[in-house]
Design goal:
Layout: E1 9-13, H1 24-34, E2 38-43, H2 46-58, E3 62-67, H3 73-87, E4 92-95, H4 110-138, E5 141-146, H5 158-178, E6 183-190, H6 204-212, H7 222-233, E7 244-247, H8 256-265
Parallel strand pairs: 1-2, 1-4, 2-3, 4-5, 5-6, 6-7
Helix pairs in contact: 1-2, 1-7, 3-4, 4-5
Length: 267
């Protein structure tokens, strides 16, 4: 690797993986470390964070684990303090946590709604609240929030879609508020990624249909999200802030008619 993040310290919230398939957060932590960053791997399940740290260590990178429920202010504060105490500064925050409830407004319970909003939206506010002052001390920084194409299109989960749309708005507001502090804030909208949350529900036919939903006709993985996050974390994107970047194989540009036409061309 080229050392694009050499000398930088990063927090990846949601750096563990719930299964054998590498997810967005785990891949991002590994790519950041490969490019020279010291990485704090945070996860609600510390063993998952430690598994990512172990993978980084085997590649010769520098990382450490911390258990953090980022929907809670005390845990976000401790997460940022750990980065500064262990590595002396903070330059990058990747907010990668997310949960979903498959329900519409008639079906969702109040507790389910509040939990999705707390994990998917409030966590970003709380993590940034404690991270930004440390980034200012370091001379600036980059915050990357993980939204979803579901924030722009219905996906059979109204709480999830709403929360991910909120992440786009929150990102733009934070970018405007903190640009003069030297803080860049962008978000990534992953498409139909094959990751640890979706893999248990996928068979080959479902994976094929998901591939065909995008203009490129190929399957996305956590590595695709990770490399987009690397660009937004690096100085190469020094003049980019407030952007919502789809990483989706062209899913958002496809209409049902186009998807059907491409599928028919295969037969």
């Amino acid at each position: 690797m080229s050392g694009r993040l050499a000398g930088k310290v990063a927090i990846v919230a949601g750096a563990g993986a719930s299964g054998a398939v590498i997810g967005n957060g785990q891949a991002t932590a590994m790519v950041f470390a490969r490019e020279g960053a010291k990485v704090v791997c945070a996860d609600a399940v510390e063993e998952r964070a430690q598994a990512t740290v172990d993978m980084i260590a085997r590649e010769g990178g520098s990382a450490s684990a911390i258990r953090a429920d980022v929907s809670k202010a005390a845990d976000c504060k401790a997460m940022v303090q750990a980065a500064v105490e262990r590595y002396g500064r903070l330059d990058i925050l990747d907010n990668n946590v997310g949960i979903s409830v498959r329900a519409d407004v008639l079906e969702v319970t109040e507790d389910e709604w509040d939990r999705v909003m707390a994990v998917n939206v409030k966590s970003i506010v709380l993590a940034a609240k404690y991270a930004i002052p440390q980034m200012v001390k370091a001379g600036g920084g980059s915050i990357i929030n993980i939204s979803s194409v579901a924030g722009l299109r219905a996906n059979q989960s109204t709480p999830y879609s709403t929360s991910k749309a909120a992440v786009v708005g929150l990102t733009r507001s934070m970018a405007g508020d903190h640009g003069r502090d030297g803080i860049r804030v962008n978000c990534i909208l992953p498409g139909l990624i094959y990751g640890p949350m979706t893999a248990p529900r996928m068979d080959e036919e479902i994976r094929r249909k998901r591939r065909e939903a995008g203009a490129l006709g190929t399957e996305g993985t956590g590595w695709d999200v990770a490399h987009a996050a690397l660009f937004l974390a690096s100085d190469e994107s020094r003049w980019i802030t407030g952007v919502a970047l789809p990483v989706d194989a062209g899913f958002l540009v496809m209409s049902p008619t186009t998807t059907l036409r491409l599928a028919q061309q295969k037969f």
